[in-house]
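It is worth pausing here to work through a concrete case rather than discussing structure prediction in the abstract. The textbook approach is simple: state the sequence, then state the predicted structure, then interpret. We follow exactly that order.
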Amino acid sequence: MDFAQVPKFHADERRVKQVILNLLTNAAKYTENGGRIEIDAVANDGGFIEVRVKDTGIGMGADELARVITPFIQGGDPMVRLSEGSGLGLPLVQSIVDAHGGTLSIESNVGVGTTAIVTFPISG
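Step two, the predicted structure:
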């Protein structure tokens, strides 16, 4: 992916970096050694920059997906927690992209992995 070809968009640079860092941190946290993490950015047909972070980690079920964007809630069984954290990463991502007029969506399957997709409007 040549990120130089991604159209420019107006956003708080520090916050966009924070979004990407949070998504990559989650991907690394839940992907075992030998797994794969990919990041891609494209301009979609709706006038948005779409950033995808995809991993081959442990994945989540539908019940977890509904919970992980709630502050202080983490996915997975709390009795077998694989990693530490406060449960604020995805809620923070959600709040930042909302403030920029974008979206956060998460696709995931247990044992297959997760894809987090954030969008930011392209500036005119």
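Step three, interpretation. DSSP finds three helices and four strands in the chain. The beta strands are 37-43, 48-55, 103-109, 113-121.
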